[in-house]
Amino acid sequence: MILLPLIVVLLIAANGVLRQRLADIIESFPTPRPAVPAGWPAPQYDFSSNPVTASGFELGRRLFHDPRLSRDGSISCASCHQQFAAFAHLDHRVSHGLNGANGTRNAPPLFNLAWQPELMWDGAIHDLELQPLAPLGNPVEMGEALEGVLPKLQSDAEYRRRFEAAFGPGEIDSRRMLLALTQFVGTLRSADSRYDRDELSAQEREGLALFRRHCASCHREPLFTDYSYRGNGLDADSADLGRSVVSGKAEDRGRFKVPSLRNVAVSAPYMHDGRFDTLAQVLRHYASGVQDSPALDPALRGGMALSAEQQQALVAFLESLTDEAFLQDERYSEPLP
Fold first, then answer.
1. Separation CA 235–CA 231 (nearest Å)
2. 65 lies in which domain range?
């Protein structure tokens, strides 16, 4: 859904009253609602305890894009999760948080989160409603605490109005803030690529056949992940403990969640540490760069037998997984002031 250029021009030139009216028009667009695309499994997150409303979704959108959630007002959720990159951080191996501090892992794209049984690269978070607390409190990300965020929201008249519209009379508290954020991120649904519409070229169909032969056991259709934790031969001895931090099992060192490949062509760089800049580099790794380790998935031992032409066909197929409508949907974009 794309606004008419005329509306954008009017918005830039508008006085306060007209600007608010235009903002109201934009907010009146149909709110994304939980839905299960045909052929998809049931989601993990149950929206029945947090029904999505227009006011709740819009509140979550504003919170997601508001840098005041960070300690110094410089970092928002959207700073590291950019819509045009499928809510990943394009060209950043790791994101920069407060005072330019570097994180430790690549910021994953955000979509179809309602289907994830666990979140983060190592599965440390088990509840979608609690996930925002991890970046919020991380000292190299947003570096804030609920005790710091809530007074900022409570002192803002516009936020008081929006919280009441979304949840009724009552305090702005952590529960309501997290519910609103979940209404936004939980409805970031991507299911309208050319693959989904069966609009593939001959080369892309060849790539799909190769994908199903070599990759689909981990990147299972239609979500293009099985949400398991696997080692894919990046290092003989992983510097990142990976899943073992959560599981406590030594054999899980260097294992990370299998990421979804939807929108993968626009969400570079790749892997948990962002070490690969292109899909071609990723496929060369699987063809000839896999290193043995205790964490290595047995299916990858010896690498994949892929010719240069087959790798090109696979890249072409992966590019067909881009959901342009999702990347341009203005309901997910930064709200007007």
1. 9
2. 31-190+326-332
